[in-house]
Amino acid sequence: MSTRRGTSFAVAGALLILAAAGPVAALEEPPDEMAALKACEKRLCTMVLGKKPTGDDLACDVQKTWAKSTLKEGESKGMSWGFGDARCKVDLKLGRADVVAALTRPKHTVRVPPHQVNCVVEREGELKPLTARLAPKLKFKDGKADKVWINLESIEGPSDVKSTIWAAAQLEDTLGIFHRPMIKSINKFLHRQCARRYGPEAEAAKKDDAKKTKVASDKSAKPAAKEAPPKAKASTTGP
């Protein structure tokens, strides 16, 4: 039940924490899955770094696949995951005003509107559907995440899977068994990873790399100059 994966989007990533706390037959990661996650990450980071009050809100239709081994990481916290791999989909929506306020005000509470997360879970060799509704809440202080709640409102699916996820979500919201690593992941993403991946220095480095690649490509494509034939020596003797 890894929380590290579930918080890869920081504020928006709270919507995926549920999937990291629960739910598939050795699912292969679709080829376009990571590209969509990265595109959403870039949109959020652009919002975080610019802190512009006007512009589009965050909207991303994404999914994430978890291996069973990743989901079992939570067992070190006393939780048990007895199922297989998992894949969850969610249509993420987050207001720009909330993101900017969380990062610029002394105190701000982000109340994410209810989202539906659609998952499939490997259970006894079969893929079983699981649907959950959650409305995460995050409290920020001086621009940093201070507290987070998953706020799982409802869940539908196989009874044993459902009870496992419900218990994990309730333990987190009441006892905070994953609270510290979640907060740490959120703040690391907001204040370090966004700048490193999408800040001015990162963009400059990308342009520099592209320029070097183009120069190298042009050199390899340019035909080698033909060696000129040696000049004939002038004769010093007469006929």
How would you concisely characterize the structure shown here?
The protein has helices at residues 3-6, 17-21, 33-50, 68-71, 96-104, 159-175, 179-198, 200-221, and strands spanning 58-66, 86-94, 107-111, 115-123, 126-134, 137-141, 144-149, 152-156.
Write structural notes for this entry.
The protein is of the alpha+beta class and 239 residues long. The chain has one domain (3-201). Helices cover 41% and strands 24% of the residues. The chain has helices at residues 3-6, 17-21, 33-50, 68-71, 96-104, 159-175, 179-198, 200-221; strands at residues 58-66, 86-94, 107-111, 115-123, 126-134, 137-141, 144-149, 152-156. The strands form two sheets. Strands 1-2-4-5-8 form a five-stranded antiparallel sheet. It has a three-stranded antiparallel sheet with strand order 3-6-7. It is globular and about 65 Å long. 34% of the residues are buried.
Query: Counting H and I runs of at least 4 residues, what is the number of helices?
Result: 8
Unreliable sequence segments? 1-25
Could you give the count of β-strands? 8
Q: Oligomer, anyone?
A: single chain
The profile of the biggest β sheet is: 5 strands, antiparallel
Widest beta sheet: strand line-up:
1-2-4-5-8
The share of residues in helices is 40-55%
Give the topology.
Elements: H1 3-6, H2 17-21, H3 33-50, E1 58-66, H4 68-71, E2 86-94, H5 96-104, E3 107-111, E4 115-123, E5 126-134, E6 137-141, E7 144-149, E8 152-156, H6 159-175, H7 179-198, H8 200-221
Antiparallel strand pairs: 1-2, 2-4, 3-6, 4-5, 5-8, 6-7
